[in-house]
TrEMBL record:
Coiled-coil features, chain-numbered ranges: none
Protein name: DUF456 domain-containing protein
Keyword annotations: Membrane, Transmembrane, Transmembrane helix
Presence of keyword Membrane: yes
Membrane-crossing segments per the record: 5-26, 46-68, 88-113, 133-159
PANTHER family: DUF456 DOMAIN-CONTAINING PROTEIN, IG HYPOTHETICAL 17883
Pfam hit, one: DUF456
Top-level lineage group: Bacteria
Keyword Membrane: yes
Residues spanning the signal sequence: none
InterPro entries named among the record's database cross-references: DUF456
Amino acid sequence: MDIFLLILGFGCMFIGIIGSIIPVLPGPGISWLGLVLLYFTNAVPSNYWILSITLLITVVISYLDYIIPAKGTKHFGGSKYGIWGTNIGLVVGIFAPIPFGFLIGPFLGAFIGELIYDSKNQKRALRAATGSIIGFLASTFMQFLVCVLFLGLYITIVWRYKDVLF
């Protein structure tokens, strides 16, 4: 049973890394689940400090994933219309049947939102839309980094208890 949990946890780690890039999957949450599965094995003693700290990191990163694209829009001069457009575009882009909809959606949402706010200032709308893309990419990079760090932690723990596990 330990080997099955070990393989399942390792699979969660890789799905989490993929999920950090694809917005439909909650990457850090799936990676954290992989850490939890590791502690369900009989060979690895429970460490609630590691699980608590990594859960806190997962919750904060997941929250920031929704905030950072909107903040990027605002930082590049976007209005509330552009921020709402970014959020709506992100949701629509995830479910849209177009390639890279998760990138195109926030960009178009911010652009359209800014055009609704001020239809004559297309330069401002483009700048705000660019900010939404930069915010989205920054958020994706943070999630990817956290998932890779969780994988490193997972491998370190497995390496430490390899004699007991195998």
